[in-house]
Amino acid sequence: MLAKLTQLKSWYEENERKVSSFSLMFGFVFDSLTLQRIDSLWDNLWLVANLVSIGACIIFINRAENTGDSRESWKYFWLMNILQFSFGALLGASFIFYFRSATLIVSWPFLLLLLAALVGNEVFKKHYERLIFQLAFLYLSLFVFMIFLLPLLVHRIGAIIFLSSGILSLVVLWFFIIVLNRVARERFKQSWQRIWLSVASIFILFNILYFTNLIPPIPLSLKDAGIYHNVEKLPQGGYRVLEEEESGLAKYLSLRQKIHLVPGNTVFAYSAIFSPADLNTDIVHEWQYYDEGDGEWKTKTRVPLRLSGGRSEGFRTFSAKSDLTPGLWRVNVATPDGLIIGRISFEIIPSDNMPIIKASVKS
Fold first, then answer.
1. Where are the alpha helices (DSSP H) in the chain?
2. Which of 176, 204, 257, 331 has the fewest beta carbons under 10 Å from its own?
3. Please, what sign has the CA dihedral across residues 54, 56, 58, 61?
4. Residue 121's CB: how many other CB atoms inside 10 A?
């Protein structure tokens, strides 16, 4: 058995870059196809399993280095590769969940950070031999996981829950470091100041991103949204919407909807938001128009709405507004404290006659 493992190790060393790149790509595609719901027990168990794997690998690797065991041993080789795979799987899964929840225009800095961590897992994997790098990546992964795990457990979202996620991740890391210090005391003593500096930097950065509304309000995500000439709830539970007919090419190339509006008529903002089961919260439709004179977006109306969780297709709700002036408009679908779940951009074009419209049903 040992001889076969040694042969496999030698083959891997000859093809390391190709295999590693393929594993990273395969893991990302696998997660994107198999991870369905952020509140799924099995999906979260998969993430927990990777966190446990990372912790175990860090402990065994540093215990071996602290006792002076040879780095050429096959055990050390496999521990390092399991560590690299687990980091890649965890960060890849987290990126997918956050990408599904985010509005790119608003949350791109945070998504870029997650993507950089995912790519860095491949590019800087040799640095996993450094305890500082290992624990910084562990805390990053742990904090990202806690941000969406805690709302699932307490059925609430908001600033207090986010801060609690950060504190809980620090507590978990603290207990892990206590265990690590017992098995690798000398290595930890050499690096403890830089370890906590790295952890504190990640904690501060995440809080800055959150309180500047750059982290999406996970686990909420916008599944469907649009501006319509009418929205009507049907007796059987669906929603009937009236929308303007557009050619297929114009519909997909346009950055915003074009609404031809007869003065005095009303337009409707429809949104379907995924929320985990038992997580009921308020959301806001924030109607804003672009003031060309001042060169900025100004809020015209904020419509509070109640959100109930559980539907994979999203809980459906809508708001309405009349007397919209011609020009650029948008509706921010947001939490009460201002975190953007999604955004609907559209342009009001004055018209003397109703445009050609078609009816469809949102189930």
1. 2-14, 16-34, 41-66, 74-101, 104-123, 131-154, 159-183, 185-211, 248-253
2. 204
3. negative
4. 25
Name the β-bridge partners of 240.
232, 361
Q: What are the pLDDT digits (tens) for 214-271? A: 777 778 878 888 999 999 988 887 889 998 877 655 555 566 788 999 888 999 999 9
Query: 221-362 belongs to which homologous superfamily?
Result: Macroglobulin (MG2) domain (2.60.40.1930)
Instruction: Say what the pLDDT of residue 103 is.
Output: 59
Start and end residues for every CATH 2.60.40.1930 domain found in the chain: 221-362
User: CA-to-CA distance for 220 and 276, rounded, in angstroms?
Assistant: 8
Q: How many CA atoms lie within 13 A of 238 on its CB side?
A: 7
pTM over cut 0.85: no
| DSSP SS3 for 311 | coil
Structure tokens at 294: 């001042």
Structure tokens at 301: 């109306």
Q: Is the dihedral of CA 90, 95, 101, 102 positive or negative?
A: positive
Give, as one character, the DSSP assignment of residue 354: P
DSSP bridge pairs for 288: 299, 330
List residues bridging with 282 in a β-sheet.
306
Enumerate the H helices of 212-340 as residue ranges.
248-253
CA 25, 26, 32 angle in degrees (round to 5)?
90
Instruction: Give the integer Cα–Cα distance in Å for 196 and 184.
Output: 16
Query: Of 262, 266, 245, whose CA–CA distance to 354 is shortest?
Result: 262
Distance CA 220, CA 67 (A): 47
